[in-house]
Amino acid sequence: MKTNKRYFAVLAVIVILLASLSVGASQVSAQSMLLFLSPDPASIYLNTTNSTVVDLWVSNGNILNAFDVTITYDTSIVQLTGWVNGGYMNISGGCIINQNQPGFFWLVCTQLNKPGVSGDGVLLKLTFTGKDFGSTPVTIAKAEFANKLNELVIPALEHGQINTLYQPGTVVNSSFSGEISLQGTSLRAGIPVTLNQGQYLGVGPYTTTAMSLPANNYSVNPIVMDAYILTTAFPRYLNVEAGMAKTVGILRTHTVAAPLMLLSGNAVWQNNNEINLSDLDAIRDAFDGSGAGLNEDVNYDGVVDVRDLALAGGNFGMNSSSAYGGWVP
Amino acid sequence: MMLRHFIKNKKRLLSVGVIALMVLIATPCLPVLAQENSPVGVFSAPSVAVGEQVAVIVEIQDVTNLYGYQLVLHFDPDLLSVVDEDLFSDGIQVELGTFLTPGIVLINNVDLTAGTVQVVLTQMNPSEAVSGSGTLFTVRFIGLANGVSPLTIDDLTLSDRDGFEIPSLAEDSQLTIGSGGTWLSYFPVICQSGSGLTSMPDLGIQGFRGSPPIQKITSFAAQAAKLARPNLFLQDDL
């Protein structure tokens, strides 16, 4: 009986506090109150601990008693693996919503029978783990507070950022593979793929050659965990150039690049990564020619015919940037 | 009870089993059907009188994802000549069809000595590959002497946009040159307008198959005259 009464009292307090967060509650100006993430930007070293703690800070709070906060981020780069109370409020037992889904964290908590909190302090400590090399914004998508007077308090927001990178000096070997194919032919062997010098540890470059395998047909093992710019160099095709900065982040576990198909039609391919009139002219001049070594035989079938022309025509006007701009290794 | 019911329906079950087996056997055949050769050729049975013209349409049927083609059409140069459809280019050209958008015409050439029409063309980015049936090109032959000219196709290659060959089948035909009445299936005219020469290629009578349309020259001339007034003249004195 006694427990029931206490339960109802707690429930009533929660309902009252949360109700104060709803629309219609009186809203106080909170221009001086700020919610921000620290450190900003935060760093995760993929080749060391592969995690970091980001603090969600409250600045200039005034008799705060409850909050409703949502955090979003890019799930391809990081994952929020855990959180703990930062100590600013005593929310023990007072959280009624706690959703931690990939890319979306939602927490609604209140103090239970405690005085309102004022001043500065860490509301939450968020632990992120790296998933891939890159950068992600960490956005405070929603932040509402309630004070002791049941007034809604909307703080100013400063979003954060997490960069996932590599700790120089820490060499960790891993492995890498990917799938590369050629438009217009079933040939898959002999395509050179290079991972240029690592951006943080300076190891490399690594050069490998694709093999005639059905799925992943090129690999590098071992390879030092680092970020590398990937390039290709296959004659008569549009290649991925270094200037495109297609960066592969090698992870502690085996890293697999997204499949890539090189586009054909580049009959005049030396120092030229564009399908243009010079390619069409070359194919016209060599039309009906046969034999190995003809650059105009852009599909490597041993004869210059309408299939080579169709490849050049179908890709006419394209260059490496337009061909592979959407490819994320 | 169940067993009796089962035995009673044994025949029906057997029938169902046989049908299921047939379906299972037939299923692997389906992809084969999808990869059938696309016929290319002259699918009408044209004829022309000596000294007259006839439009012969080279068509493709039931093709999937066509982007470019190359072929050579052979005819008897002793029996037939060809009208040049492009007065502004060197040599003799045939009229290209609209099935493909001719982005890059590598070869469009008639050799009256060898008796060949060679066409090599492909579409161009951003044109998309096309499927279905349609006209690749039209040759306007002139009858030179009585006889039967074979119309044979060789060096036929169809390509999709990725440079892969599309299976094809060249279908040979023939053209009879006789002294009978002249029936045209197609009659392009060049009209004089304010902006210069204008081609009037269609008139709604091309693209036939099986039964050539019965239209006399004078009838088309009358239609052309109606459409192209006031400054009409015919390219050829028919």
Main attributes?
heterodimer; A: 329 residues; 21 strands; 12% helix; B: 238 residues; seven-stranded mixed sheet; six-stranded mixed sheet; 18% helix; 41% strand; disordered C terminus
Quick overview of this protein structure:
The complex is a heterodimer of chains A (329) and B (238). Chain A is mainly β and 329 residues long.
Main beta-sheet annotation of chain A:
12 strands, mixed
What overall form of chain A do the CA principal axes indicate? elongated
Globular, elongated, flat, extended or rod-shaped: what is the shape of chain B?
globular
Structural class from helices and strands of chain B? alpha+beta
Spell the H/E element sequence of chain B. Answer: HHHEEEEEEEEEEEEEEEH
Task: Indicate the mean pLDDT of chain B.
Answer: 73
| Alpha carbon gyration radius of chain A | 29 Å
- Hey, which two chains have the biggest interface? A-B, 25 and 23 residues
Low-confidence stretches of chain A: none
- The secondary-structure class of chain A comes to mainly beta
How much helicity do the residues of chain A have?
10-25%
The total count of strands of chain B amounts to 15
Order of helices and strands of chain A: HEEEEEEEEEEEEEEEEEEEEEHHH
End-to-end separation of chain B in angstroms reads 88 Å
Counted beta strands of chain A:
21
Tally the helices of chain A: what do you get? Answer: 4
Question: Describe it for me?
Answer:
The complex is a heterodimer of chains A (329) and B (238). Chain A is mainly beta and 329 residues long. Helix content of chain A is 12%, strand content 40%. In chain A, the strands form four sheets. In chain A, strands 1, 2, 3, 4, 5, 6, 7, 8, 9, 10, 11 and 12 form a twelve-stranded mixed β-sheet that branches. Chain A has a four-stranded antiparallel β-sheet with strand order 16-15-18-19, with no helix packed on it. In chain A, helix 2 (277-285) runs antiparallel to helix 3 (306-314). Chain A starts with a helix and ends in a 5-residue tail after the last helix. By secondary structure, chain B is an alpha+beta fold. In chain B, the strands form three sheets. In chain B, strands 2, 4, 7, 8, 10, 11 and 13 form a seven-stranded mixed β-sheet that branches. In chain B, strands 1, 3, 5, 6, 9 and 12 form a six-stranded mixed β-sheet that branches. In chain B, strands 14-15 form a two-stranded antiparallel ribbon. In chain B, strand 7 (104-111) and strand 8 (116-122) form a beta hairpin. The longest helix of chain B is centred in the first third of the chain and has 17 residues, at 10-26. Residues 1-8, 20-34 and 180-238 of chain B have low confidence and may be disordered.
